[in-house]
Amino acid sequence: MPFRIPGTQINWTNSSFLIGTGLATITAVPYYLWKVGIDWFQVALFLAFFIATGLSITLGYHRLFAHKAFKAAWPVRFLTLVFGAAAFENCALAWVSDHRRHHKHTDHDDDPYDISKGFWHAHIGWILFKINPEPPWDNVNDLRKDRLVMWQDKYYVTIAVTAGFLLPAALGWLYNGPVGALGAFLLAGVARVTAVQHMTFFINSLCHSVGNRPYSSRTSARDSWIMALFTFGEGYHNYHHEFQHDYRNGVKWWQFDPTKWTIWVLHKLGMASELRRVDDSKIISAQLSEAQRRVQEHLQTSADRINERTRELLHASAERLAEINARWNELKVHYREQVDALKKDYAHKTDEKWQEACHALEEMRREVRQAVALLDRLPAVA
Protein backbone atom coordinates (compact mmCIF):
# COMPACT_ATOMS: atom_id res chain seq x y z
CA MET A 1 0.00 0.00 0.00
CA PRO A 2 1.41 3.44 -0.89
CA PHE A 3 2.04 5.89 1.92
CA ARG A 4 -0.82 8.37 2.04
CA ILE A 5 -1.23 11.92 3.23
CA PRO A 6 -4.90 12.76 3.93
CA GLY A 7 -6.56 13.66 0.66
CA THR A 8 -3.44 12.88 -1.37
CA GLN A 9 -1.55 9.96 -2.84
CA ILE A 10 2.13 9.99 -3.61
CA ASN A 11 3.08 9.53 -7.24
CA TRP A 12 6.04 7.27 -6.60
CA THR A 13 7.43 7.33 -10.13
CA ASN A 14 7.55 11.12 -10.33
CA SER A 15 8.65 11.55 -6.72
CA SER A 16 11.48 9.03 -6.99
CA PHE A 17 12.83 10.60 -10.16
CA LEU A 18 12.54 14.23 -9.05
CA ILE A 19 13.96 13.61 -5.59
CA GLY A 20 16.66 11.30 -6.94
CA THR A 21 17.92 13.71 -9.59
CA GLY A 22 17.67 16.61 -7.14
CA LEU A 23 19.73 14.81 -4.50
CA ALA A 24 22.30 13.72 -7.08
CA THR A 25 22.60 17.32 -8.27
CA ILE A 26 23.47 18.62 -4.80
CA THR A 27 25.66 15.64 -3.74
CA ALA A 28 27.17 13.57 -6.56
CA VAL A 29 27.74 16.52 -8.90
CA PRO A 30 29.70 18.64 -6.36
CA TYR A 31 31.68 15.53 -5.34
CA TYR A 32 32.64 14.86 -8.97
CA LEU A 33 33.66 18.49 -9.45
CA TRP A 34 35.77 18.37 -6.28
CA LYS A 35 37.52 15.14 -7.26
CA VAL A 36 37.85 15.58 -11.03
CA GLY A 37 37.21 19.25 -11.76
CA ILE A 38 35.58 20.70 -14.83
CA ASP A 39 36.79 21.76 -18.26
CA TRP A 40 35.42 23.65 -21.25
CA PHE A 41 33.92 20.51 -22.82
CA GLN A 42 31.74 19.70 -19.81
CA VAL A 43 30.57 23.32 -19.55
CA ALA A 44 29.78 23.47 -23.27
CA LEU A 45 27.96 20.13 -23.16
CA PHE A 46 25.85 21.23 -20.19
CA LEU A 47 24.91 24.49 -21.92
CA ALA A 48 24.15 22.75 -25.22
CA PHE A 49 21.78 20.25 -23.61
CA PHE A 50 20.28 22.92 -21.34
CA ILE A 51 19.44 25.11 -24.34
CA ALA A 52 18.29 22.21 -26.53
CA THR A 53 15.94 20.75 -23.90
CA GLY A 54 14.82 24.11 -22.49
CA LEU A 55 13.89 25.50 -25.90
CA SER A 56 12.23 22.20 -26.82
CA ILE A 57 9.84 22.80 -23.93
CA THR A 58 9.20 26.52 -24.46
CA LEU A 59 9.28 26.56 -28.26
CA GLY A 60 8.06 23.02 -28.95
CA TYR A 61 5.81 21.70 -26.19
CA HIS A 62 4.50 25.15 -25.26
CA ARG A 63 4.19 27.57 -28.17
CA LEU A 64 4.10 25.06 -31.04
CA PHE A 65 2.09 22.10 -29.74
CA ALA A 66 0.04 23.57 -26.87
CA HIS A 67 -0.92 26.91 -28.43
CA LYS A 68 -0.43 26.41 -32.17
CA ALA A 69 1.28 29.80 -32.25
CA PHE A 70 3.07 28.85 -35.45
CA LYS A 71 3.60 25.91 -37.77
CA ALA A 72 6.93 24.11 -38.07
CA ALA A 73 8.61 21.79 -40.55
CA TRP A 74 9.01 18.16 -39.52
CA PRO A 75 12.71 18.47 -38.49
CA VAL A 76 11.77 21.17 -35.95
CA ARG A 77 8.87 19.10 -34.63
CA PHE A 78 11.04 15.97 -34.49
CA LEU A 79 13.93 17.62 -32.63
CA THR A 80 11.67 19.39 -30.11
CA LEU A 81 9.90 16.11 -29.40
CA VAL A 82 13.20 14.25 -28.91
CA PHE A 83 14.85 16.87 -26.71
CA GLY A 84 11.54 17.76 -25.07
CA ALA A 85 11.40 14.15 -23.90
CA ALA A 86 14.99 14.55 -22.65
CA ALA A 87 13.72 17.24 -20.25
CA PHE A 88 11.74 14.46 -18.50
CA GLU A 89 8.57 16.55 -18.23
CA ASN A 90 6.33 13.84 -19.67
CA CYS A 91 5.32 13.19 -23.26
CA ALA A 92 3.97 16.05 -25.36
CA LEU A 93 0.39 14.75 -25.21
CA ALA A 94 0.30 14.76 -21.41
CA TRP A 95 2.21 18.06 -21.10
CA VAL A 96 -0.07 19.86 -23.56
CA SER A 97 -3.23 18.41 -21.99
CA ASP A 98 -2.19 19.72 -18.56
CA HIS A 99 -1.22 23.11 -19.96
CA ARG A 100 -4.42 23.62 -21.91
CA ARG A 101 -6.42 22.82 -18.77
CA HIS A 102 -4.25 25.32 -16.89
CA HIS A 103 -5.27 28.07 -19.34
CA LYS A 104 -8.91 27.06 -19.37
CA HIS A 105 -9.24 26.86 -15.57
CA THR A 106 -6.51 29.23 -14.32
CA ASP A 107 -6.62 29.71 -10.53
CA HIS A 108 -9.52 27.28 -10.15
CA ASP A 109 -9.77 23.71 -8.93
CA ASP A 110 -9.43 22.11 -12.36
CA ASP A 111 -6.16 23.97 -12.96
CA PRO A 112 -3.47 21.25 -12.55
CA TYR A 113 -1.00 23.70 -11.00
CA ASP A 114 -3.43 26.09 -9.35
CA ILE A 115 -1.42 28.77 -7.50
CA SER A 116 -4.33 29.37 -5.11
CA LYS A 117 -3.48 25.99 -3.55
CA GLY A 118 -0.10 27.32 -2.55
CA PHE A 119 3.33 28.02 -4.00
CA TRP A 120 4.59 24.50 -3.27
CA HIS A 121 1.62 22.89 -5.00
CA ALA A 122 2.02 25.02 -8.14
CA HIS A 123 5.78 24.51 -8.26
CA ILE A 124 6.14 20.78 -7.73
CA GLY A 125 3.50 19.42 -5.36
CA TRP A 126 1.01 18.74 -8.16
CA ILE A 127 3.58 16.40 -9.73
CA LEU A 128 4.56 14.59 -6.52
CA PHE A 129 1.01 14.07 -5.29
CA LYS A 130 -2.15 13.23 -7.18
CA ILE A 131 -5.20 14.59 -5.37
CA ASN A 132 -7.70 13.77 -8.11
CA PRO A 133 -7.82 10.98 -10.69
CA GLU A 134 -5.90 11.66 -13.91
CA PRO A 135 -8.30 13.53 -16.25
CA PRO A 136 -8.80 12.24 -19.79
CA TRP A 137 -6.68 13.68 -22.56
CA ASP A 138 -9.75 14.75 -24.50
CA ASN A 139 -8.35 18.22 -25.19
CA VAL A 140 -5.46 17.03 -27.39
CA ASN A 141 -7.35 15.25 -30.16
CA ASP A 142 -5.68 17.56 -32.68
CA LEU A 143 -2.25 16.25 -31.64
CA ARG A 144 -3.37 12.65 -31.93
CA LYS A 145 -3.40 13.22 -35.70
CA ASP A 146 0.31 14.07 -35.65
CA ARG A 147 2.32 10.90 -36.28
CA LEU A 148 5.49 12.34 -34.74
CA VAL A 149 3.64 13.22 -31.53
CA MET A 150 2.15 9.72 -31.36
CA TRP A 151 5.57 8.18 -32.02
CA GLN A 152 7.00 10.14 -29.09
CA ASP A 153 4.08 9.09 -26.89
CA LYS A 154 4.69 5.41 -27.68
CA TYR A 155 8.46 5.46 -27.10
CA TYR A 156 8.67 8.31 -24.62
CA VAL A 157 10.77 6.58 -21.92
CA THR A 158 13.26 5.16 -24.43
CA ILE A 159 13.64 8.52 -26.18
CA ALA A 160 14.00 10.39 -22.88
CA VAL A 161 16.67 8.09 -21.42
CA THR A 162 18.59 7.86 -24.70
CA ALA A 163 18.61 11.60 -25.51
CA GLY A 164 18.71 12.83 -21.92
CA PHE A 165 21.30 10.53 -20.30
CA LEU A 166 22.93 8.11 -22.74
CA LEU A 167 23.72 10.65 -25.48
CA PRO A 168 25.64 13.09 -23.24
CA ALA A 169 27.42 10.17 -21.56
CA ALA A 170 28.45 8.80 -24.96
CA LEU A 171 29.78 12.21 -26.02
CA GLY A 172 31.68 12.45 -22.74
CA TRP A 173 33.18 8.98 -23.33
CA LEU A 174 34.39 10.01 -26.79
CA TYR A 175 36.00 13.09 -25.28
CA ASN A 176 37.68 11.63 -22.19
CA GLY A 177 36.81 7.98 -21.68
CA PRO A 178 34.98 6.71 -18.54
CA VAL A 179 35.76 9.83 -16.49
CA GLY A 180 34.37 12.06 -19.23
CA ALA A 181 31.30 9.85 -19.57
CA LEU A 182 30.57 10.06 -15.84
CA GLY A 183 31.02 13.82 -15.83
CA ALA A 184 28.79 14.30 -18.85
CA PHE A 185 26.14 12.04 -17.34
CA LEU A 186 26.16 14.01 -14.09
CA LEU A 187 26.43 17.53 -15.56
CA ALA A 188 24.76 17.49 -18.99
CA GLY A 189 22.41 14.75 -17.81
CA VAL A 190 21.35 14.86 -14.17
CA ALA A 191 22.17 18.48 -13.21
CA ARG A 192 20.81 19.78 -16.51
CA VAL A 193 17.52 17.90 -16.06
CA THR A 194 17.12 19.41 -12.59
CA ALA A 195 17.86 22.92 -13.88
CA VAL A 196 15.49 22.71 -16.87
CA GLN A 197 12.68 21.19 -14.82
CA HIS A 198 12.79 23.87 -12.16
CA MET A 199 12.95 26.51 -14.89
CA THR A 200 9.58 25.17 -16.05
CA PHE A 201 8.27 24.82 -12.49
CA PHE A 202 9.11 28.49 -11.79
CA ILE A 203 6.76 29.51 -14.60
CA ASN A 204 3.93 27.74 -12.78
CA SER A 205 4.84 29.15 -9.35
CA LEU A 206 6.89 32.36 -9.40
CA CYS A 207 5.32 33.67 -12.62
CA HIS A 208 1.96 33.48 -10.81
CA SER A 209 3.38 35.19 -7.71
CA VAL A 210 6.05 37.75 -8.67
CA GLY A 211 5.74 40.63 -11.11
CA ASN A 212 3.06 42.96 -12.44
CA ARG A 213 -0.11 42.59 -14.49
CA PRO A 214 -0.15 45.28 -17.18
CA TYR A 215 -2.57 43.52 -19.54
CA SER A 216 -5.11 41.82 -17.28
CA SER A 217 -5.75 41.16 -13.61
CA ARG A 218 -8.32 38.46 -14.30
CA THR A 219 -5.76 35.78 -13.39
CA SER A 220 -2.71 35.51 -11.15
CA ALA A 221 -0.31 35.35 -14.13
CA ARG A 222 2.35 38.06 -13.97
CA ASP A 223 5.05 39.65 -16.10
CA SER A 224 8.58 39.48 -14.69
CA TRP A 225 11.67 40.40 -16.69
CA ILE A 226 13.78 38.69 -14.04
CA MET A 227 11.94 35.40 -14.53
CA ALA A 228 12.24 35.82 -18.32
CA LEU A 229 16.03 35.61 -17.93
CA PHE A 230 15.75 32.10 -16.47
CA THR A 231 12.87 30.75 -18.55
CA PHE A 232 13.81 31.49 -22.18
CA GLY A 233 11.40 34.44 -22.25
CA GLU A 234 8.44 32.73 -20.58
CA GLY A 235 8.54 35.21 -17.70
CA TYR A 236 6.20 37.61 -19.53
CA HIS A 237 3.37 35.47 -18.31
CA ASN A 238 0.64 38.07 -17.90
CA TYR A 239 0.86 38.90 -21.59
CA HIS A 240 0.86 35.21 -22.44
CA HIS A 241 -2.29 34.47 -20.45
CA GLU A 242 -4.10 37.37 -22.06
CA PHE A 243 -2.89 36.54 -25.59
CA GLN A 244 -1.94 32.88 -25.41
CA HIS A 245 -1.82 32.22 -29.17
CA ASP A 246 0.79 34.89 -29.91
CA TYR A 247 4.16 33.31 -30.75
CA ARG A 248 5.76 36.08 -28.66
CA ASN A 249 5.73 36.33 -24.88
CA GLY A 250 8.03 39.33 -24.70
CA VAL A 251 6.01 41.45 -27.12
CA LYS A 252 8.24 44.55 -26.87
CA TRP A 253 11.38 44.46 -29.03
CA TRP A 254 13.64 44.95 -26.01
CA GLN A 255 12.12 42.21 -23.86
CA PHE A 256 14.29 39.12 -23.36
CA ASP A 257 12.54 36.30 -25.20
CA PRO A 258 15.01 33.83 -26.82
CA THR A 259 12.12 31.53 -27.72
CA LYS A 260 10.52 34.29 -29.82
CA TRP A 261 13.82 35.06 -31.50
CA THR A 262 14.42 31.40 -32.30
CA ILE A 263 10.97 31.06 -33.88
CA TRP A 264 11.64 34.21 -35.94
CA VAL A 265 14.98 32.81 -37.14
CA LEU A 266 13.33 29.49 -38.05
CA HIS A 267 10.76 31.46 -40.01
CA LYS A 268 13.48 33.28 -41.94
CA LEU A 269 15.12 29.91 -42.68
CA GLY A 270 11.86 28.50 -44.01
CA MET A 271 11.46 26.05 -41.09
CA ALA A 272 8.51 27.84 -39.46
CA SER A 273 5.44 29.52 -40.92
CA GLU A 274 2.13 31.20 -40.06
CA LEU A 275 3.52 32.99 -37.01
CA ARG A 276 0.54 34.30 -35.06
CA ARG A 277 0.70 37.84 -33.67
CA VAL A 278 -1.83 39.86 -31.73
CA ASP A 279 -2.70 43.17 -33.38
CA ASP A 280 -1.22 46.25 -31.69
CA SER A 281 -4.70 47.71 -31.24
CA LYS A 282 -5.77 44.79 -29.02
CA ILE A 283 -2.60 45.05 -26.92
CA ILE A 284 -3.06 48.79 -26.34
CA SER A 285 -6.77 48.31 -25.58
CA ALA A 286 -5.89 45.67 -22.98
CA GLN A 287 -3.36 47.98 -21.33
CA LEU A 288 -5.84 50.85 -21.29
CA SER A 289 -8.62 48.73 -19.80
CA GLU A 290 -6.34 47.35 -17.09
CA ALA A 291 -4.96 50.81 -16.22
CA GLN A 292 -8.48 52.22 -15.94
CA ARG A 293 -9.54 49.31 -13.76
CA ARG A 294 -6.59 49.91 -11.43
CA VAL A 295 -7.45 53.61 -11.06
CA GLN A 296 -11.09 52.90 -10.29
CA GLU A 297 -10.14 50.20 -7.80
CA HIS A 298 -7.82 52.60 -5.98
CA LEU A 299 -10.51 55.28 -5.87
CA GLN A 300 -13.19 52.90 -4.60
CA THR A 301 -11.21 50.90 -2.05
CA SER A 302 -8.66 53.39 -0.74
CA ALA A 303 -10.52 56.71 -0.68
CA ASP A 304 -10.49 56.89 3.11
CA ARG A 305 -6.79 55.95 3.42
CA ILE A 306 -5.11 58.26 0.94
CA ASN A 307 -4.08 61.88 1.25
CA GLU A 308 -5.37 64.71 -0.88
CA ARG A 309 -2.32 64.75 -3.18
CA THR A 310 -2.69 61.05 -3.94
CA ARG A 311 -6.42 61.50 -4.55
CA GLU A 312 -5.66 64.30 -7.00
CA LEU A 313 -3.16 62.07 -8.81
CA LEU A 314 -5.72 59.30 -9.07
CA HIS A 315 -8.38 61.60 -10.50
CA ALA A 316 -5.84 63.10 -12.91
CA SER A 317 -4.83 59.63 -14.02
CA ALA A 318 -8.46 58.60 -14.48
CA GLU A 319 -9.15 61.68 -16.61
CA ARG A 320 -6.00 61.13 -18.62
CA LEU A 321 -6.85 57.50 -19.29
CA ALA A 322 -10.39 58.41 -20.33
CA GLU A 323 -9.00 60.99 -22.75
CA ILE A 324 -6.48 58.52 -24.16
CA ASN A 325 -9.15 55.86 -24.53
CA ALA A 326 -11.39 58.27 -26.50
CA ARG A 327 -8.49 59.26 -28.74
CA TRP A 328 -7.53 55.62 -29.19
CA ASN A 329 -11.04 54.69 -30.32
CA GLU A 330 -10.94 57.59 -32.77
CA LEU A 331 -7.54 56.44 -34.03
CA LYS A 332 -8.82 52.93 -34.65
CA VAL A 333 -11.73 54.26 -36.69
CA HIS A 334 -9.60 56.58 -38.82
CA TYR A 335 -6.46 54.57 -39.32
CA ARG A 336 -7.02 50.86 -38.77
CA GLU A 337 -8.42 50.02 -42.20
CA GLN A 338 -5.85 52.03 -44.14
CA VAL A 339 -2.96 50.63 -42.08
CA ASP A 340 -4.13 47.07 -42.75
CA ALA A 341 -4.48 47.83 -46.44
CA LEU A 342 -1.08 49.47 -46.69
CA LYS A 343 0.60 46.61 -44.82
CA LYS A 344 -0.18 44.35 -47.75
CA ASP A 345 1.93 46.47 -50.08
CA TYR A 346 5.41 47.18 -48.76
CA ALA A 347 6.01 49.80 -51.45
CA HIS A 348 3.34 52.00 -49.90
CA LYS A 349 5.02 52.07 -46.50
CA THR A 350 6.60 55.36 -47.48
CA ASP A 351 3.18 56.76 -48.28
CA GLU A 352 2.29 59.89 -46.28
CA LYS A 353 -0.84 58.26 -44.86
CA TRP A 354 1.14 55.26 -43.73
CA GLN A 355 3.66 57.48 -41.97
CA GLU A 356 0.85 59.45 -40.36
CA ALA A 357 -0.83 56.28 -39.11
CA CYS A 358 2.42 54.86 -37.73
CA HIS A 359 3.21 58.16 -36.02
CA ALA A 360 -0.24 58.26 -34.42
CA LEU A 361 0.13 54.67 -33.22
CA GLU A 362 3.52 55.39 -31.67
CA GLU A 363 2.14 58.53 -30.03
CA MET A 364 -0.65 56.47 -28.53
CA ARG A 365 1.81 53.94 -27.15
CA ARG A 366 3.78 56.78 -25.57
CA GLU A 367 0.65 58.25 -23.96
CA VAL A 368 -0.33 54.88 -22.54
CA ARG A 369 3.15 54.47 -21.05
CA GLN A 370 2.98 57.93 -19.51
CA ALA A 371 -0.44 57.31 -17.98
CA VAL A 372 0.59 53.93 -16.56
CA ALA A 373 3.81 55.47 -15.22
CA LEU A 374 1.72 58.07 -13.40
CA LEU A 375 -0.25 55.25 -11.83
CA ASP A 376 2.93 53.42 -10.79
CA ARG A 377 4.22 56.54 -9.01
CA LEU A 378 1.33 56.53 -6.56
CA PRO A 379 2.17 55.68 -2.93
CA ALA A 380 1.95 52.01 -2.06
CA VAL A 381 -0.83 52.70 0.46
CA ALA A 382 -3.09 53.49 -2.48
UniProtKB/TrEMBL annotation:
Q: Does the keyword Transit peptide apply?
A: no
Under the heading InterPro entries, the entry gives: Acyl-CoA_DS (IPR015876), FA_desaturase_dom (IPR005804)
Q: By its UniProt entry, which Pfam families does this protein fall under?
A: FA_desaturase
Which CDD domains does the record associate with it? Answer: Delta9-FADS-like
Q: Main EC class of this protein?
A: oxidoreductase
Domain of life, per lineage: Bacteria
- The answer to whether the entry has keyword Oxidoreductase is yes
Its membrane topology is listed as: Multi-pass membrane protein
Query: What Enzyme Commission number(s) apply to this enzyme?
Result: 1.14.19.-
Keywords attached to this entry: Fatty acid biosynthesis, Fatty acid metabolism, Iron, Lipid biosynthesis, Lipid metabolism, Membrane, Oxidoreductase, Transmembrane, Transmembrane helix
GO terms for MF: oxidoreductase activity
Where in or outside the cell?
Membrane
Q: The Fatty acid desaturase domain covers which part of the protein?
A: 44-261
Instruction: Show the stretches that span the lipid bilayer.
Output: 12-34, 40-61, 155-175
* Family of the protein in this entry: Belongs to the fatty acid desaturase type 2 family.
Quote the protein name from its UniProt record: Fatty acid desaturase
Organism whose genome encodes this protein: Actomonas aquatica
